[in-house]
Amino acid sequence: LGLCVSRASASVLNFNCCLVLLPMCRVLLAFLRGSQKVASRKTRRLLDKSKTFHVTCGITICIFSVLHVAAHLVNALNFSENYNEDFLSINAANYRGEDPRKLLFATVPGLTGVIMVLVLFLMCTASTYAIRVSNYDIFWYTHNLFFVFYMLLMLHVSGGVLKYQTNLEEHPPGCFNPNKTLQGNMTESKAFEEMFPDYTTEPFPEDLSVPEPFVQNNFMRICSEEPKFQSHFPETWFWISGPLCLYCVERLYRYIRSNKPVTITSVISHPSNVLEVRMMKDDFKARPGQYVILHCPRVSALESHPFTLTMCPTDTKATFGVHLKVVGDWTERFRDLLLLHSNQDAEILPIFQQRRYPKLYVDGPFGSPFEESLNYEVSLCVAGGIGVTPFASILNTLLDGWKCYKLRRLYFIWVCRDIESFRWFADLLCMLHNKLWQENRPDYINIQLYLSQTDGIQKIIGEKYQALNSRLLIGRPRWKLLFDEIAKCNRRKIIGVFCCGPNKISKILHKLSNSSNSYGTRFEYNKESFS
């Protein structure tokens, strides 16, 4: 039973170790999402579940690893206690009663297995939500131990502990071996002769044929030779070599692509600890809703973080930018380096002084669900706090021109705790609002701003933001009424729902999107998920 369980769990582990790397091939996913090869929107939406798929494969690996280890512990005990000299080639033990710990710590499969369990334990515990939030560095460094895990996995399967029989036709299971039986009888005869020399036995003819009834019996098969065994060819190589090579090639491509540092053109400090970084890079192209990974060696030699593009390069301008919330050690050190030589809220240096900025490398862009927001006729975009960043690039794109996209109506809901946060993109919202009014399309975008926390005093975003002040509401959105109103105004249409914010809001929107309504309107839910 132990051998069967270990083999079955090993097959499941091979399959999941193959799949767990595929969702991390970001370049491949971005290519599939942006190419015409995946024309179906439903299929493209499945690509947005890459992180969930990766986590599912990781949990499956942990569960079946426990099962695999338990089965091999039973196997080690069986090898030691059931040692048989007749089957030396298939027994991992050297003698009866051998300490099973030697099989675990003194053999290549055993030792690599123990180390793999320790590596997997570190990776799993450091992947929990509590550790990722409290100390992201621990999660980052331990997760990169996956390469050590795969190298040990390749060594683990090369030990050849489990074997299979190569001559099943010549020696089928349960067959009758007359030669072995005769040799046993001859041994007993010699012992009988030594005890009773007067009663000698005639040697048993070697060419004695087996009685006919034994041959004709359907339940008795004759062995023509002794069983022969050899180690299984390691199937793990077939499973993980392809995805591992694909992942390594992609990482090499990403390293070459991001090897040249970007030129930082400006750094702007916004209210509520938000920093805007604008950059330029040769041949950099991106689509609205995509994200990039920033790496600053002076902040951390290995650590890097994803940030959604809030401004994409166009045919007329090559500048792109990100907004980042200063929370955590990495963003704090990054902010201090960027604003080291400036005491003002904005720093825009001339070209000959830009060397003061630290070197910054950009990896990407990579795809996200928000690329689909322009492919719906009607879209509902809900942002919570700094979660507005994915929609900023979309609003910037609409500001440059909206007629070339399928989108004809956009509902934009933004919920913030303090009034100052709305100033991050207040100018952008006002410019887009004025542009649409000038083009006689004021119904193209419906802006609703919610201030969830207030001290009771009516506040405004600013005197120059009159178009936004009239759309500022105190409190939280009444989501059920909001969905009913949107469904009523867009009967029998498919509406894309996009959310980037707290999990509480995300769960509410997901539930409402899956609920039916009396207007024949269907909501398709999408959620931001960095892979």
Topology:
Layout: H1 2-19, H2 26-34, H3 41-47, H4 50-81, H5 100-105, H6 108-126, H7 129-134, H8 136-143, H9 146-156, E1 163-165, H10 178-195, H11 212-216, E2 229-231, H12 236-257, E3 263-270, E4 274-280, E5 291-295, E6 305-311, E7 319-325, H13 329-338, E8 346-347, E9 361-366, E10 378-384, H14 389-400, E11 409-416, H15 426-438, E12 445-451, H16 466-469, E13 472-474, H17 479-489, E14 494-500, H18 503-514, E15 522-527
Parallel strand pairs: 10-11, 10-14, 11-12, 12-13, 14-15
Antiparallel strand pairs: 1-2, 3-4, 3-8, 4-7, 5-6, 5-9, 6-7
Write structural notes for this entry:
- Residues 257-372 form the FAD-binding FR-type domain.
- Its EC number is 1.6.3.1.
- It catalyses: NADPH + 2 O2 = 2 superoxide + NADP(+) + H(+); NADPH + O2 + H(+) = H2O2 + NADP(+).
- One of its GO terms (molecular function) is superoxide-generating NAD(P)H oxidase activity.
- The chain crosses the membrane at residues 12-32, 53-74, 103-126, 138-157.
- This protein has 531 residues and is an alpha/beta fold.
- The chain has three domains: 1-164 and 233-249; 261-339 and 356-367, Beta Barrel (Elongation Factor Tu (Ef-tu), domain 3); 369-391 and 398-530, Nucleotide-binding domain of ferredoxin-NADP reductase (FNR) module (Rossmann fold).
- It has 18 helices and 15 strands.
- The chain has helices at 2-19, 26-34, 41-47, 50-81, 100-105, 108-126, 129-134, 136-143, 146-156, 178-195, 212-216, 236-257, 329-338, 389-400, 426-438, 466-469, 479-489, 503-514, and strands at 163-165, 229-231, 263-270, 274-280, 291-295, 305-311, 319-325, 346-347, 361-366, 378-384, 409-416, 445-451, 472-474, 494-500, 522-527.
- The chain has a seven-stranded antiparallel β-sheet with strand order 8-3-4-7-6-5-9. A six-stranded parallel β-sheet has the order 13-12-11-10-14-15, sandwiched between helices. The protein has a two-stranded antiparallel sheet with strand order 1-2.
- β14 (494-500), α18 (503-514) and β15 form a beta-alpha-beta unit.
- α4 packs antiparallel against α6, α6 runs antiparallel to α8 (136-143) and α14 packs parallel to α15 (426-438).
- It is elongated, with a radius of gyration of 34 Å.
- The two termini are 39 Å apart.
- The relative contact order is 0.09.
